[in-house]
């Protein structure tokens, strides 16, 4: 049996995240199972590109730094990386995330022993700003670290699996794919996803659905033990960001549903909205009515956050569905992939 080769790719766009970028790359470089390739793709920022090539390569000689040669945004940067890596597996780590343990990469690669597995993603826990704790906009139940709205800040949320199992799609901050997926399915949709600080998304959802359609019997695996810590910036702790991010999610889901159909685009979301969120509201209301020890007074911030977040997402979805823009007409990016590098004996 042969082992798979793996590249870790970090995409970055701003010098404001320099410390996060440095930590992300360092966490990938110190893995027990070292990556075969380490890449940083800089999204249309000459100053960041020059500094990374000068300072980060001095620390990590194996690091290759590339400018985004495609459409501005995260999807274009990822597609640029895909046209340069030569490994079996491509791992994407966000520029503000860092592996929580030195066996993160090994755990992420374990499921690929099954040839039917085409993609594997891990979990993400929030790393709050220094001196800050969990905000009222992201409620959480007692005895759990996952909040129902933690997806708003790019983290694993209550309602996702707690053990390794198949899922529809992966979270972008901590995910991997067989490189051959992009030969069959094409790249990330460059008309979807985040551009700078604009909180759009769902390019991973659309790609995962498209990828499974190209390979019958394939599976996508969520591996919660492959964990990263995702830095949450101060601006994401506000009510304004909650509503803005939820509204953008609705717009993004509408675009995906026009491309792949509502059944697949909303299959996970229907259960989440009909079961997970109502349970959260009831819990938060009960907590306000009968506060536990140490409670400083009744409030309904948590319930309000869930209700307002769902409302903003719904409004965004309705607005997106009514839009005259036809996302389904957007072309799937065709990538020019390198020949695969030979695998080494296990």
TrEMBL record:
Q: What would you give as a GO molecular function for this chain, any one?
A: transferase activity
**Which SUPFAM superfamilies would you find in this protein's record?**
Nucleotide-diphospho-sugar transferases (SSF53448)
Q: Point out the coiled-coil segments of this chain.
A: none
Q: Which Pfam families match?
A: Glycos_transf_2
**Which InterPro entries does the UniProt entry name for this protein?**
Glyco_trans_2-like (IPR001173), Glycosyltransf_2 (IPR050834), Nucleotide-diphossugar_trans (IPR029044)
Keywords associated with the record: Transferase
Superkingdom of origin: Bacteria
Annotated Glycosyltransferase 2-like domain ranges read 8-182
State the name under which the record lists this protein: Glycosyltransferase, GT2 family
């Amino acid at each position: 049996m042969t082992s798979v080769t793996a590249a870790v790719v970090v995409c970055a766009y701003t010098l404001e995240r320099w410390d996060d970028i440095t930590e992300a790359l360092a966490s990938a470089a110190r893995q027990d199972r070292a990556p075969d390739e380490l890449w940083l793709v800089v999204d249309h920022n000459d100053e960041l590109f020059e500094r990374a090539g000068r300072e980060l390569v001095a620390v990590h000689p194996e690091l290759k730094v590339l400018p985004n040669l495609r459409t501005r945004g995260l999807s274009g940067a990822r597609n640029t990386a895909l046209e340069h890596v030569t490994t079996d597996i491509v791992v994407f780590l966000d520029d503000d995330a860092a592996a929580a343990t030195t066996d993160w990469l090994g755990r992420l690669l374990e499921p690929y022993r099954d040839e039917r597995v085409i993609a594997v993603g891990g979990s993400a826990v929030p790393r709050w700003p220094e001196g800050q704790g969990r905000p009222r906009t992201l409620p959480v139940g007692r005895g759990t670290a996952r909040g129902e709205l933690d997806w708003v800040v790019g983290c694993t949320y209550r309602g996702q699996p707690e053990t390794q199992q198949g899922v529809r799609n992966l979270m972008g901050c901590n995910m991997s794919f067989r490189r051959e997926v992009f030969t069959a399915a094409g790249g990330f949709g460059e008309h979807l996803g985040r551009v700078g600080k604009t909180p759009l998304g769902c390019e991973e959802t659309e790609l995962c659905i498209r990828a499974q359609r190209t390979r019958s019997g394939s599976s996508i695996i969520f591996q919660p033990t492959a964990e990263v810590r995702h830095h949450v910036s101060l601006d994401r702790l506000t009510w304004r960001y909650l509503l803005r991010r939820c509204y953008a999610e609705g717009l993004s889901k509408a675009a995906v549903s026009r491309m792949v159909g509502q059944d697949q685009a909303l299959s996970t979301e229907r259960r989440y909205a009909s079961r997970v969120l109502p349970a959260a509201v009831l819990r938060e209301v009960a907590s306000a009515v009968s506060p536990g020890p140490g409670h400083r007074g009744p409030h309904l911030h948590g319930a309000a956050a869930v209700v307002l977040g769902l409302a903003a997402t719904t409004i965004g979805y309705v607005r997106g569905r009514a839009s005259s823009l036809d996302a389904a007409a957007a072309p799937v990016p065709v990538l020019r992939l390198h020949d695969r590098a030979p695998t080494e004996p296990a």
